[in-house]
Amino acid sequence: MTQLRLNIVLTSIFVVIIAMVIALRLSQLTLMREIMIIVNLGIMAYLIYDLLLIKALTMHTVMLRNPYTQFPTKYELFRDMTKVSLEHKTVYAIQVQNYDEIIEACGMSFVNVIDHNIKQRLLALAKSDHIYEIRDHTYLIVNNSDVSEQAILDVFESPMQGHDENQTYPLHPKVVIVKDMAKSVSNIRNLLGFIDVALADNMNYHHPVVMLDEAFITKINTENYYKAHLHTAIQKKQIKTYFQPKLSLKEKTIVGAEALSRWVENDRTVSPAHYIYLAEATGLIVDIDLISFKDTCDLLERLKQQETLTDQFKISTNFSPITLKNINASQLETILDQHNIDPRHISIEITERVAMRYTELKDILRDIKALGIQIEMDDFSAGHASLSLLPVLGVDTVKIDHSVLPRQPFDHDDIAIYKGLVALLDSLDIVIVAEGVETTEEYLMIHDLPIDLIQGYYISHPGPLDEFVKMMASLEEFASEDDKDLNPET
User: Fold this and answer.
1) Angstrom distance (rounded) from CA 12 to CA 377
2) Nearest of 188, 198, 180 to residue 90 by alpha carbon
3) What is each CA distance from 97 to 110, 172, 197, 345, in whole angstroms?
4) Per-residue pLDDT tens over the stretch 441-452
5) Distance between CA 420 and CA 356 in Å, rounded?
6) What's the pLDDT tens digit per position in 36-73?
7) Within a 13 Å sphere around the CA of 452, how many CA atoms are in the beta-carbon half?
8) SS in 3 state form for 437-452?
9) Which residues are CB-contacts of 329 (< 8 A; sequence separation ≥ 6)?
10) Is 0.85 surpassed by the pTM of this model?
Protein backbone atom coordinates (compact mmCIF):
# COMPACT_ATOMS: atom_id res chain seq x y z
CA MET A 1 0.00 0.00 0.00
CA THR A 2 2.89 2.36 0.88
CA GLN A 3 4.56 1.60 -2.46
CA LEU A 4 1.29 2.38 -4.29
CA ARG A 5 0.96 5.77 -2.53
CA LEU A 6 4.56 6.63 -3.38
CA ASN A 7 3.95 5.76 -7.03
CA ILE A 8 0.84 8.00 -7.10
CA VAL A 9 2.77 10.93 -5.58
CA LEU A 10 5.70 10.55 -8.00
CA THR A 11 3.39 10.25 -10.98
CA SER A 12 1.54 13.40 -9.86
CA ILE A 13 4.85 15.27 -9.60
CA PHE A 14 5.79 14.04 -13.08
CA VAL A 15 2.47 15.36 -14.49
CA VAL A 16 3.05 18.73 -12.80
CA ILE A 17 6.56 18.92 -14.29
CA ILE A 18 5.22 18.23 -17.77
CA ALA A 19 2.59 20.95 -17.26
CA MET A 20 5.32 23.37 -16.16
CA VAL A 21 7.36 22.56 -19.28
CA ILE A 22 4.39 23.34 -21.48
CA ALA A 23 3.68 26.59 -19.58
CA LEU A 24 7.30 27.70 -19.80
CA ARG A 25 7.32 27.04 -23.51
CA LEU A 26 4.29 29.23 -23.93
CA SER A 27 5.56 32.05 -21.66
CA GLN A 28 9.02 32.39 -23.35
CA LEU A 29 10.80 33.23 -20.03
CA THR A 30 14.46 34.37 -20.12
CA LEU A 31 15.47 31.64 -17.66
CA MET A 32 13.99 29.01 -19.92
CA ARG A 33 17.30 27.18 -20.56
CA GLU A 34 18.23 26.79 -16.88
CA ILE A 35 14.73 25.73 -15.90
CA MET A 36 14.64 23.15 -18.72
CA ILE A 37 17.89 21.62 -17.49
CA ILE A 38 16.42 21.20 -14.02
CA VAL A 39 13.20 19.77 -15.43
CA ASN A 40 15.10 17.28 -17.63
CA LEU A 41 17.16 16.13 -14.65
CA GLY A 42 13.92 15.56 -12.77
CA ILE A 43 12.47 13.53 -15.64
CA MET A 44 15.67 11.46 -15.87
CA ALA A 45 15.57 10.74 -12.14
CA TYR A 46 11.95 9.63 -12.44
CA LEU A 47 12.78 7.28 -15.34
CA ILE A 48 15.69 5.74 -13.39
CA TYR A 49 13.32 5.17 -10.47
CA ASP A 50 10.84 3.50 -12.80
CA LEU A 51 13.54 1.17 -14.18
CA LEU A 52 14.57 0.17 -10.65
CA LEU A 53 10.93 -0.40 -9.78
CA ILE A 54 10.45 -2.63 -12.84
CA LYS A 55 13.55 -4.63 -11.88
CA ALA A 56 12.26 -5.06 -8.32
CA LEU A 57 8.85 -6.15 -9.59
CA THR A 58 10.50 -8.63 -11.98
CA MET A 59 12.52 -10.18 -9.17
CA HIS A 60 9.38 -10.31 -7.03
CA THR A 61 7.57 -12.16 -9.81
CA VAL A 62 10.49 -14.58 -10.29
CA MET A 63 10.69 -15.29 -6.57
CA LEU A 64 6.93 -15.70 -6.17
CA ARG A 65 6.22 -18.62 -3.90
CA ASN A 66 3.78 -21.43 -4.53
CA PRO A 67 0.59 -20.11 -2.87
CA TYR A 68 -0.33 -23.58 -1.60
CA THR A 69 3.00 -24.48 0.04
CA GLN A 70 4.66 -21.09 0.67
CA PHE A 71 8.10 -22.73 0.81
CA PRO A 72 11.10 -20.54 -0.06
CA THR A 73 12.04 -20.64 -3.75
CA LYS A 74 15.25 -21.58 -5.56
CA TYR A 75 16.24 -17.89 -5.71
CA GLU A 76 15.85 -17.54 -1.98
CA LEU A 77 18.02 -20.67 -1.68
CA PHE A 78 20.79 -18.95 -3.67
CA ARG A 79 20.56 -15.96 -1.34
CA ASP A 80 20.55 -18.04 1.83
CA MET A 81 23.41 -20.31 0.81
CA THR A 82 25.79 -17.35 0.47
CA LYS A 83 25.62 -17.12 4.27
CA VAL A 84 25.39 -20.81 5.21
CA SER A 85 27.85 -23.69 4.83
CA LEU A 86 26.40 -27.06 3.85
CA GLU A 87 29.27 -28.96 5.42
CA HIS A 88 27.44 -29.86 8.65
CA LYS A 89 23.94 -29.96 7.16
CA THR A 90 21.81 -32.86 6.01
CA VAL A 91 20.92 -32.13 2.38
CA TYR A 92 18.49 -34.10 0.26
CA ALA A 93 16.09 -33.51 -2.62
CA ILE A 94 12.63 -35.02 -3.05
CA GLN A 95 10.64 -35.10 -6.28
CA VAL A 96 7.09 -36.42 -6.48
CA GLN A 97 7.39 -38.23 -9.79
CA ASN A 98 3.74 -39.09 -10.38
CA TYR A 99 2.45 -35.57 -9.57
CA ASP A 100 1.33 -34.88 -13.16
CA GLU A 101 -0.39 -38.26 -13.37
CA ILE A 102 -2.49 -37.46 -10.29
CA ILE A 103 -3.43 -34.03 -11.66
CA GLU A 104 -4.34 -35.62 -14.99
CA ALA A 105 -6.62 -38.07 -13.18
CA CYS A 106 -8.21 -35.53 -10.83
CA GLY A 107 -8.09 -32.24 -12.76
CA MET A 108 -6.39 -28.90 -12.12
CA SER A 109 -8.77 -28.18 -9.24
CA PHE A 110 -6.83 -30.83 -7.32
CA VAL A 111 -3.55 -28.85 -7.37
CA ASN A 112 -4.17 -27.17 -4.02
CA VAL A 113 -5.11 -30.52 -2.45
CA ILE A 114 -2.00 -32.38 -3.56
CA ASP A 115 0.32 -29.43 -2.81
CA HIS A 116 -1.12 -29.11 0.69
CA ASN A 117 -0.75 -32.87 1.20
CA ILE A 118 2.88 -32.82 0.09
CA LYS A 119 3.54 -29.81 2.33
CA GLN A 120 2.27 -31.63 5.43
CA ARG A 121 4.47 -34.63 4.68
CA LEU A 122 7.57 -32.49 4.16
CA LEU A 123 6.92 -30.60 7.40
CA ALA A 124 7.22 -33.95 9.18
CA LEU A 125 10.85 -33.97 7.99
CA ALA A 126 11.93 -30.34 8.50
CA LYS A 127 10.83 -26.83 9.39
CA SER A 128 9.25 -24.81 6.60
CA ASP A 129 12.16 -22.37 6.30
CA HIS A 130 14.51 -25.33 5.68
CA ILE A 131 12.48 -26.61 2.73
CA TYR A 132 13.00 -24.99 -0.69
CA GLU A 133 10.73 -25.59 -3.68
CA ILE A 134 13.42 -25.57 -6.38
CA ARG A 135 10.89 -26.28 -9.13
CA ASP A 136 7.40 -27.76 -9.52
CA HIS A 137 6.90 -30.67 -7.07
CA THR A 138 10.66 -30.83 -6.44
CA TYR A 139 12.03 -29.84 -3.04
CA LEU A 140 15.46 -29.37 -1.51
CA ILE A 141 15.71 -29.81 2.26
CA VAL A 142 18.66 -28.35 4.15
CA ASN A 143 18.34 -29.71 7.67
CA ASN A 144 20.33 -29.35 10.86
CA SER A 145 19.76 -32.94 11.97
CA ASP A 146 20.21 -36.27 10.20
CA VAL A 147 17.23 -37.94 8.56
CA SER A 148 17.44 -41.57 7.50
CA GLU A 149 16.59 -42.80 4.04
CA GLN A 150 13.81 -44.96 5.47
CA ALA A 151 12.32 -42.06 7.43
CA ILE A 152 11.96 -40.08 4.19
CA LEU A 153 10.30 -42.99 2.40
CA ASP A 154 7.99 -43.65 5.38
CA VAL A 155 6.60 -40.10 5.11
CA PHE A 156 5.38 -40.87 1.58
CA GLU A 157 4.32 -44.45 2.23
CA SER A 158 0.60 -43.92 2.80
CA PRO A 159 -1.50 -42.86 -0.24
CA MET A 160 -3.27 -39.51 -0.30
CA GLN A 161 -7.04 -39.07 -0.33
CA GLY A 162 -8.71 -38.08 -3.60
CA HIS A 163 -11.86 -36.01 -4.14
CA ASP A 164 -13.92 -39.12 -3.54
CA GLU A 165 -13.48 -40.83 -0.16
CA ASN A 166 -13.11 -44.15 -1.99
CA GLN A 167 -10.27 -42.82 -4.16
CA THR A 168 -6.68 -42.83 -2.99
CA TYR A 169 -3.49 -41.98 -4.88
CA PRO A 170 -0.01 -43.21 -3.97
CA LEU A 171 2.84 -40.70 -4.05
CA HIS A 172 6.03 -41.92 -5.73
CA PRO A 173 9.00 -39.92 -4.41
CA LYS A 174 12.45 -39.89 -5.99
CA VAL A 175 15.00 -39.03 -3.30
CA VAL A 176 18.53 -37.75 -3.81
CA ILE A 177 20.67 -37.78 -0.67
CA VAL A 178 23.68 -35.48 -0.93
CA LYS A 179 26.75 -37.04 0.66
CA ASP A 180 29.60 -35.12 2.28
CA MET A 181 31.90 -34.86 -0.74
CA ALA A 182 29.09 -33.59 -2.98
CA LYS A 183 28.39 -30.74 -0.54
CA SER A 184 31.82 -29.28 -1.30
CA VAL A 185 31.13 -28.60 -5.00
CA SER A 186 32.02 -25.09 -6.09
CA ASN A 187 28.58 -23.50 -5.50
CA ILE A 188 24.91 -24.24 -4.89
CA ARG A 189 24.06 -23.84 -8.59
CA ASN A 190 26.48 -26.63 -9.48
CA LEU A 191 25.04 -28.79 -6.72
CA LEU A 192 21.52 -28.29 -8.09
CA GLY A 193 22.83 -29.31 -11.51
CA PHE A 194 24.12 -32.60 -10.08
CA ILE A 195 20.81 -33.10 -8.27
CA ASP A 196 18.90 -32.62 -11.54
CA VAL A 197 21.03 -35.32 -13.19
CA ALA A 198 20.51 -37.64 -10.23
CA LEU A 199 16.74 -37.10 -10.33
CA ALA A 200 16.73 -37.90 -14.05
CA ASP A 201 18.93 -40.98 -13.62
CA ASN A 202 16.92 -44.13 -14.33
CA MET A 203 19.67 -46.71 -13.95
CA ASN A 204 18.27 -47.87 -10.60
CA TYR A 205 14.63 -47.07 -11.25
CA HIS A 206 13.49 -49.93 -9.00
CA HIS A 207 14.96 -48.11 -5.99
CA PRO A 208 13.66 -44.58 -5.32
CA VAL A 209 16.82 -43.35 -3.55
CA VAL A 210 19.99 -42.11 -5.29
CA MET A 211 23.16 -41.33 -3.36
CA LEU A 212 24.83 -38.20 -4.73
CA ASP A 213 28.35 -39.10 -3.69
CA GLU A 214 31.87 -38.91 -5.07
CA ALA A 215 31.31 -41.90 -7.37
CA PHE A 216 28.15 -40.38 -8.86
CA ILE A 217 29.82 -37.00 -9.45
CA THR A 218 32.80 -38.74 -11.05
CA LYS A 219 30.38 -40.57 -13.33
CA ILE A 220 28.67 -37.31 -14.34
CA ASN A 221 32.00 -35.55 -14.96
CA THR A 222 33.18 -38.52 -17.02
CA GLU A 223 30.01 -38.43 -19.13
CA ASN A 224 30.46 -34.70 -19.67
CA TYR A 225 34.05 -35.30 -20.76
CA TYR A 226 33.04 -37.96 -23.27
CA LYS A 227 30.18 -35.84 -24.54
CA ALA A 228 32.54 -32.90 -25.15
CA HIS A 229 35.29 -34.96 -26.82
CA LEU A 230 33.42 -37.60 -28.83
CA HIS A 231 33.22 -35.59 -32.05
CA THR A 232 36.94 -34.80 -31.82
CA ALA A 233 37.69 -38.49 -31.22
CA ILE A 234 35.91 -39.40 -34.45
CA GLN A 235 37.84 -36.74 -36.38
CA LYS A 236 41.17 -37.89 -34.90
CA LYS A 237 40.35 -41.53 -35.80
CA GLN A 238 40.41 -42.57 -32.14
CA ILE A 239 37.28 -44.67 -32.70
CA LYS A 240 38.68 -48.10 -33.59
CA THR A 241 37.03 -51.39 -34.44
CA TYR A 242 37.89 -54.50 -32.45
CA PHE A 243 36.89 -57.99 -33.55
CA GLN A 244 35.73 -60.87 -31.36
CA PRO A 245 35.89 -64.35 -32.97
CA LYS A 246 32.91 -66.68 -33.39
CA LEU A 247 33.54 -70.40 -33.13
CA SER A 248 31.62 -73.07 -35.04
CA LEU A 249 30.53 -75.69 -32.51
CA LYS A 250 30.35 -78.33 -35.21
CA GLU A 251 33.67 -77.68 -36.94
CA LYS A 252 35.54 -76.27 -33.92
CA THR A 253 37.00 -73.51 -36.11
CA ILE A 254 36.75 -69.72 -36.25
CA VAL A 255 34.16 -68.93 -38.91
CA GLY A 256 33.50 -65.28 -38.23
CA ALA A 257 33.64 -62.36 -35.82
CA GLU A 258 31.67 -59.44 -34.45
CA ALA A 259 32.91 -55.90 -35.10
CA LEU A 260 32.86 -53.89 -31.86
CA SER A 261 33.48 -50.17 -31.49
CA ARG A 262 36.20 -49.00 -29.09
CA TRP A 263 37.44 -45.51 -28.26
CA VAL A 264 41.24 -45.65 -27.94
CA GLU A 265 42.64 -42.50 -26.34
CA ASN A 266 46.27 -42.21 -25.22
CA ASP A 267 46.65 -46.02 -25.11
CA ARG A 268 43.51 -46.22 -22.95
CA THR A 269 40.53 -48.16 -24.28
CA VAL A 270 37.14 -46.66 -23.44
CA SER A 271 34.26 -49.11 -23.21
CA PRO A 272 31.34 -48.40 -25.57
CA ALA A 273 29.07 -48.40 -22.51
CA HIS A 274 30.51 -44.94 -21.75
CA TYR A 275 29.86 -43.29 -25.10
CA ILE A 276 27.50 -45.22 -27.39
CA TYR A 277 24.35 -43.83 -25.75
CA LEU A 278 25.88 -40.34 -26.01
CA ALA A 279 26.59 -40.99 -29.68
CA GLU A 280 22.96 -41.98 -30.22
CA ALA A 281 21.74 -38.87 -28.41
CA THR A 282 23.90 -36.60 -30.62
CA GLY A 283 23.53 -38.48 -33.91
CA LEU A 284 27.26 -39.31 -34.03
CA ILE A 285 26.35 -43.00 -33.89
CA VAL A 286 25.91 -42.89 -37.69
CA ASP A 287 29.61 -42.02 -38.12
CA ILE A 288 30.66 -44.66 -35.60
CA ASP A 289 28.59 -47.43 -37.23
CA LEU A 290 29.97 -46.55 -40.68
CA ILE A 291 33.52 -46.66 -39.26
CA SER A 292 32.84 -50.21 -38.06
CA PHE A 293 31.37 -51.15 -41.46
CA LYS A 294 34.42 -49.77 -43.31
CA ASP A 295 36.84 -51.51 -40.91
CA THR A 296 34.89 -54.74 -41.40
CA CYS A 297 35.40 -54.46 -45.16
CA ASP A 298 39.07 -53.63 -44.56
CA LEU A 299 39.50 -56.78 -42.44
CA LEU A 300 37.79 -58.96 -45.04
CA GLU A 301 40.05 -57.50 -47.71
CA ARG A 302 43.14 -58.28 -45.61
CA LEU A 303 41.97 -61.86 -44.98
CA LYS A 304 41.33 -62.31 -48.69
CA GLN A 305 44.84 -61.08 -49.50
CA GLN A 306 46.43 -63.59 -47.12
CA GLU A 307 44.08 -66.31 -48.38
CA THR A 308 42.43 -67.03 -45.02
CA LEU A 309 38.95 -65.86 -46.04
CA THR A 310 36.77 -68.94 -46.40
CA ASP A 311 33.38 -69.06 -48.10
CA GLN A 312 31.54 -69.45 -44.78
CA PHE A 313 33.42 -66.67 -42.98
CA LYS A 314 31.15 -63.79 -41.92
CA ILE A 315 31.62 -60.63 -39.85
CA SER A 316 28.67 -58.98 -38.12
CA THR A 317 28.68 -55.24 -37.48
CA ASN A 318 26.20 -53.28 -35.36
CA PHE A 319 23.81 -50.70 -36.79
CA SER A 320 21.75 -48.49 -34.49
CA PRO A 321 18.13 -47.68 -35.43
CA ILE A 322 19.35 -44.09 -35.84
CA THR A 323 21.95 -45.24 -38.36
CA LEU A 324 19.41 -47.29 -40.28
CA LYS A 325 17.16 -44.24 -40.49
CA ASN A 326 19.93 -41.94 -41.79
CA ILE A 327 21.74 -44.04 -44.40
CA ASN A 328 20.83 -45.66 -47.69
CA ALA A 329 21.93 -48.92 -49.27
CA SER A 330 23.95 -47.15 -51.96
CA GLN A 331 26.38 -45.85 -49.30
CA LEU A 332 27.06 -49.42 -48.17
CA GLU A 333 27.34 -50.63 -51.74
CA THR A 334 29.98 -47.97 -52.47
CA ILE A 335 32.07 -49.09 -49.48
CA LEU A 336 31.76 -52.75 -50.55
CA ASP A 337 32.89 -51.88 -54.09
CA GLN A 338 35.86 -49.87 -52.83
CA HIS A 339 37.16 -52.96 -50.99
CA ASN A 340 35.93 -55.45 -53.60
CA ILE A 341 34.05 -57.40 -50.90
CA ASP A 342 31.33 -59.97 -51.46
CA PRO A 343 28.40 -58.79 -49.26
CA ARG A 344 27.62 -62.38 -48.18
CA HIS A 345 30.61 -62.09 -45.82
CA ILE A 346 28.84 -59.37 -43.82
CA SER A 347 25.77 -59.29 -41.62
CA ILE A 348 24.20 -56.24 -39.99
CA GLU A 349 23.41 -56.70 -36.31
CA ILE A 350 20.18 -55.07 -35.19
CA THR A 351 18.60 -55.05 -31.76
CA GLU A 352 15.03 -55.54 -30.61
CA ARG A 353 14.65 -51.74 -30.67
CA VAL A 354 14.65 -52.00 -34.47
CA ALA A 355 11.79 -54.49 -34.25
CA MET A 356 9.79 -51.93 -32.30
CA ARG A 357 10.39 -49.39 -35.12
CA TYR A 358 9.94 -51.83 -37.98
CA THR A 359 7.40 -49.70 -39.89
CA GLU A 360 9.82 -46.81 -40.39
CA LEU A 361 12.91 -49.02 -40.99
CA LYS A 362 11.51 -51.81 -43.14
CA ASP A 363 12.59 -50.17 -46.43
CA ILE A 364 16.26 -49.85 -45.49
CA LEU A 365 16.28 -53.41 -44.09
CA ARG A 366 14.82 -54.65 -47.37
CA ASP A 367 17.44 -52.71 -49.39
CA ILE A 368 20.28 -54.07 -47.23
CA LYS A 369 19.04 -57.61 -47.77
CA ALA A 370 18.84 -56.91 -51.51
CA LEU A 371 22.57 -56.12 -51.50
CA GLY A 372 23.26 -59.64 -50.24
CA ILE A 373 24.04 -58.55 -46.66
CA GLN A 374 22.36 -60.70 -44.01
CA ILE A 375 20.45 -59.50 -40.95
CA GLU A 376 21.41 -60.66 -37.46
CA MET A 377 19.25 -60.12 -34.37
CA ASP A 378 21.44 -59.18 -31.40
CA ASP A 379 20.53 -59.54 -27.70
CA PHE A 380 17.49 -61.67 -28.47
CA SER A 381 15.31 -62.42 -25.40
CA ALA A 382 16.65 -59.33 -23.57
CA GLY A 383 13.71 -57.18 -24.70
CA HIS A 384 10.23 -57.64 -26.09
CA ALA A 385 10.65 -58.88 -29.68
CA SER A 386 8.83 -62.13 -30.34
CA LEU A 387 9.73 -65.09 -32.52
CA SER A 388 7.02 -64.09 -34.96
CA LEU A 389 8.91 -60.90 -35.82
CA LEU A 390 12.06 -62.69 -36.98
CA PRO A 391 10.72 -63.70 -40.41
CA VAL A 392 9.10 -60.27 -40.83
CA LEU A 393 12.45 -58.56 -40.23
CA GLY A 394 14.21 -60.99 -42.58
CA VAL A 395 16.50 -62.20 -39.81
CA ASP A 396 19.03 -64.88 -40.84
CA THR A 397 20.91 -65.22 -37.54
CA VAL A 398 19.88 -64.81 -33.91
CA LYS A 399 22.24 -64.14 -31.00
CA ILE A 400 20.76 -65.31 -27.71
CA ASP A 401 21.48 -62.66 -25.10
CA HIS A 402 24.10 -63.60 -22.52
CA SER A 403 21.71 -62.63 -19.70
CA VAL A 404 19.70 -65.85 -20.22
CA LEU A 405 22.75 -68.09 -20.46
CA PRO A 406 22.71 -70.45 -17.44
CA ARG A 407 25.61 -69.52 -15.14
CA GLN A 408 25.30 -72.47 -12.76
CA PRO A 409 25.47 -76.11 -13.95
CA PHE A 410 22.79 -77.19 -11.45
CA ASP A 411 20.32 -74.39 -12.10
CA HIS A 412 17.83 -76.68 -13.81
CA ASP A 413 15.16 -74.00 -14.38
CA ASP A 414 17.54 -71.67 -16.22
CA ILE A 415 18.92 -74.55 -18.26
CA ALA A 416 15.40 -75.68 -19.21
CA ILE A 417 14.45 -72.15 -20.33
CA TYR A 418 17.63 -71.83 -22.40
CA LYS A 419 17.14 -75.22 -24.04
CA GLY A 420 13.52 -74.37 -24.83
CA LEU A 421 14.53 -71.09 -26.48
CA VAL A 422 17.20 -72.83 -28.57
CA ALA A 423 14.69 -75.49 -29.66
CA LEU A 424 12.20 -72.83 -30.81
CA LEU A 425 14.86 -70.97 -32.81
CA ASP A 426 16.12 -74.24 -34.29
CA SER A 427 12.62 -74.98 -35.59
CA LEU A 428 12.75 -71.74 -37.62
CA ASP A 429 15.90 -72.85 -39.46
CA ILE A 430 17.83 -69.81 -38.22
CA VAL A 431 21.55 -69.69 -37.44
CA ILE A 432 21.87 -69.60 -33.64
CA VAL A 433 24.71 -67.84 -31.83
CA ALA A 434 25.27 -68.20 -28.08
CA GLU A 435 26.98 -65.03 -26.87
CA GLY A 436 28.62 -64.34 -23.56
CA VAL A 437 30.16 -67.79 -23.10
CA GLU A 438 32.95 -67.16 -20.61
CA THR A 439 33.80 -70.39 -18.77
CA THR A 440 34.36 -74.06 -19.48
CA GLU A 441 31.29 -74.91 -17.41
CA GLU A 442 29.10 -72.68 -19.57
CA TYR A 443 30.56 -74.16 -22.72
CA LEU A 444 29.89 -77.72 -21.51
CA MET A 445 26.28 -76.84 -20.63
CA ILE A 446 25.47 -75.78 -24.21
CA HIS A 447 27.89 -77.66 -26.49
CA ASP A 448 25.40 -80.49 -27.14
CA LEU A 449 22.55 -78.13 -28.04
CA PRO A 450 21.69 -77.34 -31.70
CA ILE A 451 23.70 -74.09 -31.49
CA ASP A 452 25.74 -73.13 -34.54
CA LEU A 453 28.21 -70.58 -33.17
CA ILE A 454 29.49 -69.41 -29.82
CA GLN A 455 31.04 -66.09 -28.91
CA GLY A 456 32.58 -64.87 -25.68
CA TYR A 457 35.70 -64.67 -23.54
CA TYR A 458 35.89 -68.48 -23.48
CA ILE A 459 36.95 -68.24 -27.14
CA SER A 460 38.73 -64.87 -27.13
CA HIS A 461 38.55 -61.27 -26.01
CA PRO A 462 37.94 -58.66 -28.73
CA GLY A 463 41.15 -57.46 -30.33
CA PRO A 464 42.36 -54.87 -32.88
CA LEU A 465 42.19 -55.54 -36.61
CA ASP A 466 45.91 -56.33 -37.00
CA GLU A 467 45.80 -58.86 -34.15
CA PHE A 468 42.81 -60.60 -35.71
CA VAL A 469 44.57 -60.87 -39.06
CA LYS A 470 47.63 -62.41 -37.36
CA MET A 471 45.44 -64.83 -35.41
CA MET A 472 43.76 -66.05 -38.59
CA ALA A 473 47.16 -66.50 -40.24
CA SER A 474 48.43 -68.53 -37.27
CA LEU A 475 45.28 -70.70 -37.32
CA GLU A 476 45.85 -71.39 -41.01
CA GLU A 477 49.47 -72.29 -40.33
CA PHE A 478 48.41 -74.57 -37.45
CA ALA A 479 45.85 -76.27 -39.68
CA SER A 480 48.50 -76.84 -42.32
CA GLU A 481 50.81 -78.46 -39.77
CA ASP A 482 47.90 -80.71 -38.74
CA ASP A 483 47.48 -81.80 -42.33
CA LYS A 484 51.16 -82.74 -42.53
CA ASP A 485 50.87 -84.84 -39.40
CA LEU A 486 47.89 -86.66 -40.87
CA ASN A 487 49.56 -87.09 -44.25
CA PRO A 488 53.30 -87.69 -43.66
CA GLU A 489 53.99 -88.24 -47.36
CA THR A 490 52.94 -84.67 -48.33
Assistant:
1) 79
2) 180
3) 16, 6, 14, 49
4) 889 888 889 999
5) 24
6) 666 666 667 766 766 666 555 554 444 578 888 989 99
7) 15
8) CCCHHHHHHHCCCCCC
9) 364, 367, 368, 370, 371
10) no
